[in-house]
Amino acid sequence: MIELRDITKSFHNGPTTTEVLKGINLCVEKGEFVAVMGSSGNGKTTLMNILGCMLRASGGSYRLDGADIESLDDDQLSAIRNKKIGFVFQAFNLLEGTSALDNVLLPLVYAEHYPDDAEERATGLLQSVGLGDRVHHKPSELSGGQLQRVAIARALVNEPAIILADEPTGNLDTASSEEVMNIFKRLHAEGKTIILITHDPDDAARAERTVFLRDGKIFHREEVQ
Ligand SMILES: Nc1ncnc2c1ncn2[C@@H]1O[C@H](COP(=O)(O)OP(=O)(O)OP(=O)(O)O)[C@@H](O)[C@H]1O
Ligand SMILES: [Mg+2]
Q1: What separation in Å is there between the alpha carbon of 34 and the centre of ligand 1?
Q2: Which residues neighbour 155 within 8 Å (Cβ) at sequence distance 6 or greater?
């Protein structure tokens, strides 16, 4: 479903060019749960932004469900992003002053059609992540673990096939991390494709396989041990 071939990415700041990704080759099948590890600054978030169609690669090819991503225009990219991909971030990225329910509904406001059952769907998702009694709470009234569960419900509201999570447990204590990882396990069991960026080997151990980003390339476990 996801196929990256020789993906490169460079950033230009004035006269300096930083070559972050130097030829990424990675295939992820539908329904796989893959962890991505690597030192800080190695380009994990950059890779996730490319996978999530938020950033264009400098070179190489990216096929997603048979579509050649590099040949699509910005509108086509955002349509694919909204339909197929749910994002979860380390810092939650929820709207302050807005209830859990309205945060979860937000992606639907940007969808082509606002579904009739939107509120029911969002409430059901909040219940499924254990927040049925926090639907009307605002971010300032929720714990870190609860905030991340709201963010997961938001990522799911468009029923994406793929979940991209960038260090989702990075700001959480052990117990909350465990809850969040259990939700990813359940989503994987339900057939979602999950790509999880993490610094935590315990989190990575929950995935089916781990790949390592180093020197701008992807290595598999047997290559780094
Ligand atoms: N928009 C940008 N412009 C210039 N340089 C950038 C940009 N985005 C990222 N970089 C650079 O690319 C490199 C990789 O950054 P990235 O955020 O992908 O790393 P990371 O592996 O996610 O790190 P961390 O584990 O700390 O989150 C860094 O050197 C960073 O400074
Ligand atoms: Mg990062």
Answers
A1: 21
A2: 86, 87, 88, 163
Residue minimizing CA distance to atom 1 of ligand 1: 11
Per-residue pLDDT of the chain (225 residues; tens, 9 = 90+): 999 999 999 999 999 999 999 999 999 999 999 999 999 999 999 999 999 999 999 999 999 999 999 999 999 999 999 999 999 999 999 999 999 999 999 999 887 789 999 999 999 999 999 999 999 999 999 999 999 999 999 999 999 999 999 999 999 999 999 999 999 999 999 999 999 999 999 999 999 999 999 999 999 987 876
> What pTM was computed for the model?
0.95
For residue 183, is it within any domain?
A: yes
Alpha-carbon span 46 to 139, nearest angstrom: 27
Q: How far is the CA of 176 from the centre of ligand 1 (A)?
A: 27
Separation of CA 36 and ligand 1 centre (Å): 15
Domain range enclosing 91? 30-58+83-224
CA 84 – CA 105 distance, rounded (Å): 16
Which residues are in the CB-under-5-Å shell of ion ligand 2? 44-45
**In a domain? residue 8:** no
Q: Whose CA is nearest to atom 31 of ligand 1?
A: 41
